[in-house]
Amino acid sequence: MMRALFSAISGMRNHMSYMDVIGNNIANVNTTAYKSSRVTFQDILGQTVRGASSPQNGRGGTNPAQIGLGMNLGGIDTIMGQGSLQSTGKLTDFAVQGEGFFVVSDGQRNFYTRDGAFDIGVDGGLVNPNTGLRVMGWAANSVGGIDTDAPMTALEIPFGTRISAQPTSSMLFAGNLDAGAAVGTAVNTTITAYDTLGNAHSVAVTYTKTAANTWGIAAAHDADGDPLTVNVAVVPAPAAITFDATTGALLTPAGGLISIPLTGAAYASPLTFDMDMSKFTQFAGQSQVNLQNQDGFPAGALVSFAVGSSGEIAGIYSNGSNRVIGQLALASFVNPGGLQRVGQNNWTSTSNSGAPIVGTPNTNGRGAVGTGTLETSNVDLAGQFTSVIIAQRGFQSSSRVITASDQMLQDLVNIIR
Questions:
Q1: Are residues 311 and 286 part of one domain?
Q2: Sign of dihedral through CA atoms 20, 23, 28, 33?
């Protein structure tokens, strides 16, 4: 009789814990990147009334007879399933689609989170504005290189920082010159080159058909910076290009490079750049010349940034150039269910989660990073409200056992009357 009382008490106590976990899940249904918890129960070792026996002397064996002593809380597991992604439109909101955790730090130790509601601090650092924890990764060097084998550092988005001007050294072109054009036909285009101080200089380039499958190249520029004077002609090297009469592909120069030397009072120093014509063709049709890319630019300041799915942070400068300024880090774990909650949507590693395996997104099973989005809670409200009913009925049933046991004890006491 007393065993039933204590078994029912264990049922009530642990169903209350079950309800506590459900209540916490429901309370966090709108918490960014919250991972729901699940309760599992296990029975307590039963009291053996009769042991088992093996078959002997023509009689069969008997099973053990045990009376259970109640139930216990087996565990509270974390369900690490992906929450849905919600678009916010904010540039500094990040979400991980797949496995992995952002690494954030208070300067002393690292924490791990799926909450990517970050912002730019007053010092230019990428931080969680609610906790002040800094987002970790790797900073790029002066030429945009990143060493992911180096220790992580706090990421910064230094708005307003400037990059020096870079003189033009190469230009990549693509286009077509009309194979049916008559000798003497000219195709004109204007390109812009930058000197060592970032000054822009317009260069007029003319392609003139001089013979079958042969086009001469001439260039002219404002050498003295005076718009009232006549532009000075430049002799490219080589000064002509030829095409295959059958395929229309560029034949000469073999590498497609044509050097353009520019000198004069308008230039901070003499400037020479290569025009890469390797993508030029000669087919019948309208002639067109397109500048696809060039490596020169004026000085500029950082005005914005963009983060790719691989976590690479590209700075966007006022001069139109882009340069890698950092790399976001993600951490993965052998057993993410072994992580321990430390509040504020943060986790810390434990002996059963394993050490963090830090790397870049989209590598070694780590997920991709989305910008302008946040991960929502993975709590299933329908399932949680069903669990509320189960927990409530389990508690009620245990309480009825206590009531029934009390009534039986009362009947036992009244026997002597």
A1: no
A2: positive
Asked if residues 276 and 173 have their Cβ atoms less than 8 Å apart, the reply is yes
pTM of the model: 0.76
User: What is the mean predicted confidence (pLDDT) over 376-380?
Assistant: 95
Per-residue pLDDT reduced to its tens digit, 228-272: 888 999 989 999 999 999 999 999 998 899 999 999 988 988 999
CA distances from 152 to 219, 355, 364 (A): 50, 15, 18
Residue 158 lies inside a defined structural domain of this protein: no
| Encoded tokens for 317 | 């400068």
pLDDT confidence bin for 104, thresholds 50/70/90: very high
Where is the domain boundary, 294, 313, 330? Answer: 294
Residue 413 has pLDDT above 90, yes or no: no
Tell me: the pLDDT tens digits for 199-226? 999 999 999 999 999 999 999 999 988 8
Q: Is the pLDDT assigned to residue 47 strictly greater than 90?
A: no
Residue-number span of the structural domain to which 204 is assigned: 170-294
Q: How many CB atoms lie within 10 A of CB 122?
A: 6
**CATH assignment at residue 223:** 2.60.98.20
Strands of 27-122, DSSP E: 37-43, 47-50, 65-67, 71-78, 85-87, 94-97, 101-105, 110-113, 119-120
Annotate 134-200 with DSSP letters as a single string: EEEEEE--TTS---TTSPPEE-B--TT-EE--B---EEEEEEE--TTPPTT-EEEEEEEEE-TT--E
**Which percentage of the chain shows pLDDT scores above 90?**
68
Cα separation of 291 and 126, whole Å?
36
* Token pair recorded at residue 79: 């369900």
How many other C-beta atoms lie within 10 A of the C-beta of residue 222?
20
Cα angle at 265 between 261 and 270, to 5 degrees? Answer: 30
97, 85 Cβ separation under 8 angstroms: yes
Element at 209 (helix H, strand E): strand 200-211
Tell me, yes or no, whether 241 and 353 share the same domain: no
